[in-house]
Automatic annotation (TrEMBL):
InterPro entries: MyTH4_dom, MyTH4_dom_sf, Unconventional_Myosin_ATPase. This is Unconventional myosin-VIIa. SMART domains: MyTH4. The gene is MYO7A_8. It comes from Ilyodon furcidens (goldbreast splitfin). Signal peptide: none annotated. Gene3D superfamilies: MyTH4 domain. Pfam families: MyTH4 (PF00784). Residues 1-119 form the MyTH4 domain.
Length: 137
């Protein structure tokens, strides 16, 4: 069985290139949302390749922040996250999913700062704010 991410690409890509390819279609076509969730959960089930599993969790974190699954798939995604609650990203994914359920789907794929944050193993995103006098305090 081949898992996503098993063969790192030789070509240099922009940070957002692949995430845009993955999520743009789903943001335009409702049925693709469940398909993406299904593929990611399949990727995370009995995957014994750590690198590949880590990439799957990163995608799930991004996905839960973009859109919720359908009402049919939602209980399965919630049950999966509950079962994996000891994984460092699972509680964050659950929070992001709750927010997506409250606010609805976002219009655009993940922002560069989100993709870079999760790739650097952090879910904290900070924006530096500059004031008119050029200070940031």
């Amino acid at each position: 069985m081949k898992y996503m991410g098993d063969y790192p690409s030789k070509r240099v890509r922009s940070v957002n290139e692949l995430t845009d390819q993955i999520f743009e279609g789903a943001l335009k076509a409702e049925p693709l949302k469940d398909e993406i969730y299904s593929q990611i959960l399949k990727q995370l089930t009995e995957n014994h390749i750590k690198y590949s599993e880590d990439k799957g969790w990163e995608l799930l974190w991004l996905c839960t922040g973009l859109f919720p699954p359908s009402n049919v798939l939602l209980p399965h995604v919630q049950k999966f996250l509950q079962a994996k609650k000891h994984h460092p990203l699972a509680p964050d994914c659950m929070q992001r999913l709750q927010k997506a359920l409250r606010n609805g789907s976002r219009k655009y794929p993940p922002h560069l700062v989100e993709v870079e944050a999760i790739q650097h193993k952090t879910t904290q995103i900070f924006h530096k704010v500059y004031f008119p006098d050029d200070s940031d305090e």
